[in-house]
Amino acid sequence: MFEPDRVITCIDCGGRAHLNCYAPEDGWAPGDVTVYRCEDCLDAWYLEVPEEIDWERGRPD
To answer: What are the helix (H) ranges across 1-61?
Structure first.
């Protein structure tokens, strides 16, 4: 099952952006939207779970 990273690099400032939402009851699926909030610049990022996932690495292609 795909799990988004708990922390990513902020696209704007390079700081740490933390996952700021809960997984759906039935788990993450392509098209679901995750929300990240940067601890430095406080920007929010809404990222869509991609269609294709490399299940061996557990990360989107």
So the answer is: none
